[in-house]
Amino acid sequence: MHIPDGFLDVKTTISFWGISAVFLSYSIKKLRDNLNEKIIPLMGVLGAFVFASQMLNFPILNGTSGHFVGGVLLGIVLGPFAGLITMSSILLIQSLLFADGGIISLGANIFNMGVVGPFLGFYLYKNFLKFFKNNFIISSFLSSFLSVVIGAAFCSIQLGISNTIPISLGLPTMVGIHALIGIGEGVITSLILSFLYKIRKDLIIPETLGGMK
After folding, report:
1. pLDDT tens-digit series, residues 149-172
2. What is the pTM of this model?
3. End-to-end alpha-carbon separation of the chain, Å?
4. Please, what is the average pLDDT of the chain?
5. How far is CA 202 from CA 9, 15, 192, 206, 211, in A?
6. Is 137 exposed, middle or buried (0-12, 13-18, 19+ CB in 10 A)?
7. Which pLDDT band holds residue 196 (cuts at 50, 70, 90)?
8. Which of 11, 105, 164, 165 is close enough to 170 for a disulfide, judged by CB 3.0 to 4.6 Å?
9. Which ranges constitute the DSSP H helices of the chain?
10. In terms of Cα–Cα distance, which of 147, 210, 131 is closest to 183?
11. Spatial CA neighbour of 96 closest among 51, 58, 140, 127
12. Which residue, among 110, 41, 32, has the nearest Cα to 71 in the 3D structure?
């Protein structure tokens, strides 16, 4: 899902830099207003875990591979604002040091993985919790799955409107492959949250979800 430089046209690049900048600015303000002592070390620990996890790829089909994104995990444990900032930091380091995703296209990558994952995924999770009566396993699996598929759909649309890959070809391909990746994402996220539930229940119970009420 990491888009390299040269794959997006100017209007798409600028548009998604603008959208991501708005989300980032708002998140920084909200985090500053709700800052507590446990968020900063958690951002570092979870950021390092997600960074390392994204480097590990698993096979999908026909030689393609995917990797754990971790957006919903960050959103649930850190809250959407700290989650977006953490994911943006991960994507920035990956683009600068590992050429994993472009620097110019960073705005689009932040939107696809940082806004859709920690932000949209977090609110999907909250609504699924209500629907499934606080079953965080089902809720985290579904929100993780959907965040990966929706992020992939946005990625294919960005490539389509940039005339890089026709949407009629890119959308079904990206969504199909990432539906399989999303299953792995959902399973891993649910397993990690199950572990956290045993040792730090306070991190994921609804009343203190993400450290923000």
Report:
1. 999 999 999 999 999 989 998 899
2. 0.89
3. 31
4. 88
5. 44, 38, 14, 9, 9
6. middle
7. confident
8. 165
9. 10-33, 39-54, 71-78, 80-97, 106-109, 121-131, 136-161, 167-199
10. 147
11. 51
12. 110
Q: Write the CB contacts of 91 (distance below 8 Å, at least 6 apart in sequence).
A: 2, 101, 106, 109, 110, 113, 114
CA dist., res. 199 & res. 162, Å (int): 46
The answer to whether 69 touches 113, Cβ cutoff 8 Å, is yes
Residue 166 burial by Cβ neighbours in a 10 Å radius (0-12, 13-18, 19+)? exposed
Q: Which of 56, 51, 148 is nearest to 93 (CA)?
A: 51
Q: What is the pLDDT of residue 36?
A: 75
Tokens representing 68?
């754990």
165-169: long-range contacts (C-beta < 8 A, 24 or more apart)?
none
Query: What phi and psi, each to the nearest 5 degrees, are found at residue 65?
Result: -140, 160
- pLDDT, tens digit, for every residue of 30-58? 988 877 777 888 899 999 999 998 877 66
> How many angstroms separate the CA atoms of 178 and 149, rounded?
6
How is residue 99 annotated by DSSP? -
pLDDT at 147 over 90: yes
pLDDT at 190: 94
Report d(CA 39, CA 99) in Å as an integer.
29
Q: Give the pLDDT of residue 162.
A: 94
Residues 6+ apart with CB under 8 A from 200: none
